[in-house]
Amino acid sequence: MTTSPETVTTGPADRRTKPVAVGLTRRSAFVDGMRAAVDALVDETARLYLEDDVPWVVGYSGGKDSTAVLQLVWLALSRIPDGQRRKTVYVITTDTLVENPIVAAWVGRSLDVLGETAVAQGLPIEPHRLTPAVEDSFWVNLIGRGYPAPRPKFRWCTERLKIKPSNNFIRSVVRSHGEAILVLGVRKAESQARAKTMAAAAAAGRIRDRLSPNVSLPNSLVYSPIEDWTNDDVWTFLMQVDNPWGYSNRDLLTLYQGASSDGECPLVVDSTTPSCGSSRFGCWTCTLVDQDKSMTAMITNDADKEWMSPLLELRNALDLGDDRELRDFRRMNGRVQLFNDEPIHGPYLQSARHDWLRRLLAAQTEIRTHGPENVKDIQLITPAELEEIRRIWVVDKHEFEDALPRIYEEATGQSYTGPELSERLALGRTEVEILAELCAGDRVHFEMVRELLDVEQRHRLMVRRSGLFGALESALHKGFYDDAEDAAARARRRKEKLAEAAEDAEAIPGWLQRRDEHEVEATP
Question: For residue 437, what are the domain limits?
Answer without folding.
Answer: 324-485
